[in-house]
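In the previous chapter we treated chains in isolation. Here, by contrast, the input contains two separate entities that must be folded as one system, with a combined length of 824 residues.
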Amino acid sequence: MHNTKTINIDDDNRFLGDLGPRLTLGGGVIGISGIFLALLLSVARDNGLAHFFHSYLLNFTFFLSIALGALFFVATQHLSAAGWSVTIRRIAEFMAWLLPWMLVLFLPVLFSVLFGSSDLYHWNNAAVMNPDSDHFNELLAKKQSFLNPSFFGVRAVIYFGIWFLLSRYLITKSIEQDATGDPELTNKMQRFSAPTLVLFALTISFAAFDWIMTLDAEWFSTIFGVYYFAGSALGFFATAILIGVALQGSGRLTHSITIEHYHDMGKFLFGFIVFWAYIAFSQYMLMWYANMPEETHWFLVRQENGWEWVSLTLLFGHFFIPFLYLMSRHIKRNKVTLCVGAIYVLIVHWIDLYWLVMPSLPHHEFGLGGLLIDLTCLIGLGGLCVAGFAYVAGERSLIPERDPRLGECLAFKNM
Amino acid sequence: MSDSKKTTTTNYPERTVGLLAEYATPEAILEAAYRVRESGYTKWDTHAPFPVHGMDDAMGIKMTVLPWIVLACGIFGGASGLLMQWWMNAYDYPFYVSGKPLFSIPANIPITFEATILLSSFGAFFGMLGLNKLPQLWNPLFRSDLFRRATDNQFFITIDARDPQFNENQTTQLLRDTGAAVVDPVKKVDRPVRIPPTLHYVGLIFTLFAIIPPAVIVAARASTKTEPRVHPIPNMDWQAKIKPQRANPLFVDDRGARLPVPGTIARGELHEDDHFYRGVVGEAWAKSFPEQISIDAKTMDRGQQRFKIYCSACHGLAGDGQGMVHLRAVERQEPTWRPPSVLFDGPVRQQPIGQLFNTITHGVRNMPAYGPQIPTEDRWAILLYVRALQRSHNATIEDVPEDLRAALQ
């Protein structure tokens, strides 16, 4: 028979094996040292601690966005009864299972707010809220019932709590199916995915508002949550491609992830580049057109003092270039070119978050010193996330062993 | 359908235009397709109720050129959208919208985007039809009862007789070898295409009727009418009341809109106090502030705030005539622009306060009347601030408080 080709994954290495503990240890060591190095580098500068917190927040929201994107992916694949994505879904599940771990990573930010630091959030300042003070800001004071450390903390706990519950259900049921093979578990996960997505949309929006938008609390954008979500989906697909390629490079999942799966993830990457651009432009254009200082000052900051170059980089680098690059079918169906695209998207996604977070750092200067802090923080938090991923993966299989749609997944061919 | 006209078709020659082979499973047709292709046939096709995976490969179908058509249409659409907006808004009828530049890219993006998408989808849709040589009215396969199953539960291969390798016996044998359950010749009747006579009359009548709307339009555009247009559903369109532009023959001048009787004053509008309301005392401009205005810090603050709101745009925050509007007019080299007056010196400083009040109220030269916008008390407050500005530019050392004099000397 010319055409039929059965894919047999029985001989695939479907476990991290001894790579797991090595990654956990290595990632943990690099992680902690990275963060301490960032802290050391920053106390050596003026304005250092504020810079450190901004860097930390930037990198935290970067990795958070990837984990949230993973949760979104798992839920949508269940809800749409998708067959094509089964062998990459477990990787996404492990990424989503990092969300509770993210609460620990969030603690530096949370504690800084609870202990009264206004290095990050200028609303966390009694003088700003006090009508008799010289620093009184009437606009911020009016938001005090929402923007106060206690409620901020309560909300953070609620977001992480909801993410914990959502990811735990989807992952434990999936792991359970490895052992029992019960198809009813698939139905349960599908049903659970519907409220998951509703809660996901709400929590990601409000988390983006709380942690990023309130850096400039006089400004607001109703589409901000969607903007963060767009970047989050991009971060996920890029990372999933890279993890897939890395695992296959280490001799694992050799036949389980086919070029068809990479092609589809590449298509999603392409689609979300367009989606991100659409949302980013919508946010910009409305405020540009109405031209109200209340809204435009946020963009004004981002078109002065060197920020205009970052903005242009986003316009061309985050939209035009990846759009034209990922449009090609041949590029998406070649693991090397696709990986180049994925790494590139992660870089511009990081630059996007840099553009969101860093302008609110007072006396921000573009320079090697600051960049070093940002990058060491990136490596630090990245190491901790790699460690977390390897820890969560542990002894578990890297694919849903007995998912009823596994056969459909392996037979999947793009047109 | 192939049964009903059998008697008439036998009068015309039939010829075989191809062979039709039926298969029961997608695997069978896939395998057969490989064989047919390997045998060197080029003019043939497969038919199936659903897409059979791997058929592209089996038939040797090359990647379609459609994506490039879509790309070209998309680029063309985007460029056209942009060009259209530039031409309409910046060139043919330059028109400022919301103070944005005539050719303003952010504002033009939504339409450009939609035009790109629209023309891309046209390219995809019509391109797909075109590449498939569709629509076609008819195909000889429609005469075959066997072929009906192609949209149901059977799979077919058709080989066109025009294929260079086509030989009725050998090709039939090949198809049987590949496992076809049935191999039928596809016949076409070479009968001249005849349109039924009634259709000629129908076509004629339809064409005549189709001329009527354009004719009516041409007639309407070429003529004028004195009767009002037909108004089929009157509803409450004509009411027994006088609207402003309507005639009312009760009055000598036939006008429905009437001015108030001379001397009519609305309640609360009997502005008897000339000093306060008109800046006039007796026959001359007032030289002092009216009694109602208390000269204190509160009035001064109010005046400063109102000055910043209403006056500073032209006269500048310092009253030096260098407001944003003036600077913009200079930048644009407006030919009819007269610079706003300097308020703290020159002619304005010489004018009595009442005259200044009158200027704010009624405007002067290019300055519009601000009376309708600014309540009377606020106008006097603004004037108090203007006096402060004048004082600040014409002050002596005695005007500075004692404790600050040292800093200046």
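The first strand of chain B starts at residue 14 and ends at 23. The interface with chain A takes residues 27, 30-31, 34, 51, 53-54, 57-58, 67, 98-100, 106-107, 109-110 of chain B (CB under 8 Å). Compare these points with the single-chain example from earlier in the chapter.
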